[in-house]
Write a structure and sequence with these properties.
The protein is mostly helical. The chain is 72% helix and 0% strand.
Length: 119
């Protein structure tokens, strides 16, 4: 969960930093290098690295085929964070997709919860 939250924070910060430099003109603009001059991009990079560290920790304890599916919760967090912090519109079709992701995560996580109760 923490890894997914860190990725969400990272993505929102990276988008905010990219938006801040969207109108800048330069010979290296097409590489996106000018965005490295914003604090939001650097915060995004730090949270992306933190997410990677969390992900490595998770992989020590949970099988990859389960962990990889559970981390898809970020497909719920990112649109919600974009709507809340960046005022982006989330369409009805996207909400439907978010509902499907939540149902899938619930199906995958349910056996894990039952297994944990037995321990």
């Amino acid at each position: 969960m923490l890894s997914a939250l860190f990725v969400t924070i990272s993505e929102v910060c990276l988008k905010a930093g990219a938006n801040e430099t969207a109108s800048s003109i330069g010979c290296l603009e097409w590489l996106g290098i000018t965005s490295l001059g914003t604090w939001q991009v650097w915060v995004g990079i730090v949270f992306y690295i933190a997410s990677f560290v969390c992900w490595l920790h998770v992989l020590r304890y949970i099988p990859l085929n389960i962990a990889y599916n559970l981390v898809n919760i970020e497909h719920v967090f990112v649109p919600l964070a974009c709507a809340f912090f960046l005022n982006e519109h989330v369409s009805l079709l996207r909400w439907s997709g978010i509902a499907l992701v939540l149902i899938g995560i619930w199906i995958i996580a349910r056996p894990l919860l039952n297994m944990e109760e037995r321990l």
